[in-house]
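Researcher: Go.
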Amino acid sequence: MGTFVITKRLNGQYKYEFASRKGKAIFVSNDFELRFECEETIEQLKNSLSELFFMKFKSKNGKMYFKIILHEKEMAVSRKYTTQLLMEKGIEEIKRTLASSEILDFSFENEIFPPEEDVFS
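Model: Structure:
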């Protein structure tokens, strides 16, 4: 089963990442100013699986990736794949597990490391 992971970037913006059952990122969202916007977009993706369009690209260095489009709006960008087959497997995993995926919210964690003075004093 895939998992959505909500985190907060260093710039204070929120993002979600969809990870495979093995924990590898498949796609990452754009930035959101508010956490609830992130949650709403995830629910929209989960409820609109049949309407998603996967626009495929090849980067300058030959890697394959895709963008997820819903109602003419870019929802997320995939990680880079070395082959077309691996990219297709990523898309198939999305189609198979997106609707039943769970959401993990790690955006409330202010600091993941202890203060510097606690470690080095």
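Model: The first strand starts at residue 3 and ends at 8.
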